[in-house]
Write a structure and sequence with these properties.
The chain has 15 helices and 15 strands. It has 442 residues and is of the alpha/beta class. Helix 2 packs parallel to helix 4, helix 3 crosses helix 15 and helix 4 crosses helix 5. The longest helix has 23 residues.
């Protein structure tokens, strides 16, 4: 219990003085007396000790588990999409899935209607590092304890901070935290970095989506390599297929053009929009009918539009903004690019390959785990516009070679990166961790 309370002291820093030390201590002690009087939330007769069997040969659980997923919001994004898709597939397998969110916003919640997945909101008013945030963790812990969840799996930065502490207080047998980036965000600097590593060390496992992230956490952060598990993202391999009729509908009048697509938000320039804009003139000199299709939106969109205008190629760029029909757009394109400055394991690249698109991407992060240079696409150095334009031109000049790369990529994704492959790997991880947790509960 001392360790558990220390967890809360770290997560909710010195801003708690606004509530007052005595009042804060009284609330925590009251929570402990009321909700933590029993030595273990899972008794020998409880569901967890009975529902760990797993038939690895058949790829099926023999019985269901109570799973709790925690996510920041339902906004459309890579992490959010992966979490929702995993929840849906786990529910279809017969597991009892609850998906909690810190903010009740975003359109992905529509995907869960009628699915059997329970949705709950646990909003930490005032922020996680406030007295109200502490109380939100205590409320979540009580919820987890009373419903006897076997697994708590947090999927992103903020849900890690809240979910791991709450699950640890509740005595949940298996706690899975996640990291899906290379810690390049400014948030990870200073004392917060140590804070996050402590949370990860208290997890049963840290789930990452690329070997690049795992290597960094071991080499630079000192995490136990045995605790870090790699399960790559999944993708729906059935949605994106080349469709000439669809191209007529979505890109009328551009039949003779080569459509080069980049899917990425415009919150920052980490996806390499500026690099693509700088590379465009060299491509257009040889292929004047090329068009650059940008899917995504964000605060930097107007800046990118101004740069394109200054470059003199505004008529060659199509800014489509946020779209819900990305697979259909990809099915209309000829070539995809992702000249990112940094990546963990990008969903956009998965979607490109699932659509059968030859892909030019930066050789950073987990991208080389998906794209093999000369086989499924081309890898180029980040922030290198000449190299990017040269790689794009090489594929436009050799359409047969480009088509073969696209075919190779689609076959790779269908074999190794489907949502079902991801779901099975996660299910096997839960089973392993639950087996390991059972002796500790006796």
């Amino acid at each position: 219990m001392a360790i558990q309370l220390f967890t809360l002291q770290i997560i909710f820093n010195t801003r708690a003085h606004r509530l007052g030390k005595a009042a804060m201590t009284a609330r925590v002690n009251q929570f402990r007396r009321t909700h933590m009087s029993r030595s273990d939330p899972i008794s020998a007769e409880s569901p967890a000790s009975q529902r760990v069997a797993f038939d690895s040969d058949a790829g099926r659980t023999t019985v269901s588990w109570r799973l709790f997923y925690l996510l920041d919001s339902f906004e459309v994004g890579g992490t959010e999409t992966q979490a929702v898709e995993l929840a849906l597939r786990m529910a279809q397998r017969g597991h009892r899935v609850t998906l909690g969110v810190l903010k009740a916003q975003g359109s992905l919640v529509d995907c869960l209607r009628g699915s059997g997945v329970t949705v709950e909101v646990f909003h930490p008013r005032g922020g996680l590092d406030s007295p109200r945030g502490l109380l939100a963790v205590l409320r979540l812990s009580r919820y987890l304890r009373h419903r006897h969840f076997e697994v708590v799996h947090s999927h992103d930065l903020w849900s890690n901070l809240m979910g791991v502490a709450a699950a640890r207080l509740a005595g949940v047998p298996v706690i899975v935290s996640s990291q899906r980036d290379l810690s390049h965000d400014a948030w990870y600097q200073g004392w917060r970095r140590a804070w996050m590593r402590r949370v990860q060390n208290w997890s049963s496992a840290v789930l990452v989506n690329s070997h690049a992230i795992r290597g960094k956490l071991v080499a630079q952060e000192g995490l136990n390599s045995a605790k870090i598990r790699v399960i790559h993202n999944g993708v729906d391999t059935a949605r994106s297929r080349p469709d000439s009729d669809l191209r007529q509908k979505l890109f009328s009048g551009l039949d003779a053009c080569k459509l080069v697509v980049l899917v990425g938000n415009m919150v920052s320039d980490v996806k390499g929009h500026s690099c693509l804009i700088a590379a465009a003139p060299a491509v257009l000199r040889e292929f004047p009918d090329a068009r650059f299709v940008l899917v995504g939106d964000g605060p930097l969109r107007s800046e990118f539009e101004k740069t394109v205008m200054k470059t003199g190629v505004i008529d060659k760029f199509l800014f489509l903004g946020y779209r819900s029909d990305v697979p259909e757009i990809l099915a209309c394109c000829d070539l995809a690019v992702l000249p990112s400055r940094a990546e963990g394991f990008p969903n956009a690249a998965l979607e490109y390959l699932a659509a059968g698109l030859p892909t030019v991407a930066s050789n950073v992060g987990g991208i080389p785990e998906l794209i093999e240079d000369g086989v499924t696409g081309r890898l180029v150095p980040p922030e290198d516009a000449p190299a990017l334009s040269a790689a794009i031109l090489s594929l436009l000049r050799e359409p047969e070679k480009a088509r073969q790369m696209g075919s190779n990529g689609r076959a790779l994704v269908a074999r190794d990166f489907s949502f079902e492959v991801m779901r099975l790997a996660v299910e096997e991880l839960y089973a392993e961790l639950l087996r390991a947790a059972r002796p500790a509960q006796r």
